[in-house]
Design brief:
By secondary structure, this protein is mainly α. It is built from three helices and three strands. The chain has a three-stranded antiparallel beta sheet.
Length: about 100
């Protein structure tokens, strides 16, 4: 014969079930946020943050710079500005002439 669980046992079972459901909900929330972040990245990756046009990439001294054909903005990824600033003076001077030739 099966005995009925005590009140303490029933309370413990309820608490365990509540905790299990909370964990499942948190996991679903995390997956949903990751999926949304992936969709946002897919929509905006390599698009100009100012006007939304697709960016074109060009090289300047081994640094890949992103240029917008619409608003003619130049966009840099993390660390690229530091790399450009670290170039020798003569190499930095050619940066602006390179950009001018690209915009023509």
């Amino acid at each position: 014969m099966i005995d009925k669980p005590s009140e303490k046992e029933e309370q413990w079972i309820k608490e365990q079930e509540i905790e299990r459901r909370k964990k499942l909900e948190r996991g679903a929330d995390i997956r949903t946020k990751e999926e949304e972040a992936g969709k946002v990245k897919e929509l905006h990756f390599m698009h100009c943050p100012k006007c939304g046009q697709e960016l074109a990439t060009f090289q300047h001294h081994n640094v890949a710079l992103d240029k917008c054909p619409g608003c003619e903005g130049i966009w840099l990824d993390k660390g690229e500005l530091d790399t450009l600033v670290g170039l020798e003076v003569e190499e930095r001077k050619t940066f602006f002439s390179t950009i001018k030739s690209i915009f023509k």
